[in-house]
Amino acid sequence: MSPTPLHLVPVRSRQAKEFVRTWHRHHPPPTGQIFAVGAADETGVLRAVAIVGRPVARHFDDGATLEVTRTATDGTRNANSLLYGASWRAAKALGYRRLITFTQVGESGASLRGAGWHLIARLPPRAGWHTASRPRTGNGNDRVARFLWQATDPTPTVPSSVPAAQPTGPE
């Protein structure tokens, strides 16, 4: 069976969050977002969404970095790869220089690799966010190792030591 042809579609915040509520395996929708993008089939049925927002960890929130905080799919092949690639292109178009996301142990990262992302860190499980001074309830993903991924620009950059090409013919 051939994969369903997909195309990118704009998705409003409410629709993206409802899609995540319905289809995401282990997380609720994120609180905020900068933008969302969807993948629809040839009949216009929404098959997957990606939500991109400010980085959750404050040390990544440098004004030049965004994070794919959620993707969700109904199982349609290649939908996540399409959305990870589109999210990076959109972030770059908005002037951001870095796009990151996290996966959990047990998630292969195939969609990220397929979209040209690279694994940059393996993070050990954390005990959770609860402290006596700031009580918090767990959300089901404490004590799970995670992987940090970063989008890379496939366009090679020319080092500043290389002279610019000079025109050789009439213009």
What letter string, H or E per element, gives the SSE order? Answer: EHEEEHEHEE
**N-to-C terminal Cα separation, in Å?**
51 Å
Helix content: 10-25%
- Outline the low-pLDDT stretches: 156-171
Overall number of strands: 7
Rg calc: 19 Å
What is the number of helices?
3
Strand order of the largest sheet: 1-2-3-4-5-7-6
In round numbers, the mean pLDDT is 84
Major sheet size, sense and barrel closure:
7 strands, mixed
Structural class given helices, strands, pairing? Answer: alpha+beta
What overall geometry do the principal axes of the alpha carbons give? globular
Task: Bin the strand percentage.
Answer: 25-35%
In short:
This protein is α+β, with helices and mostly antiparallel strands. Helix content is 18%, strand content 26%.
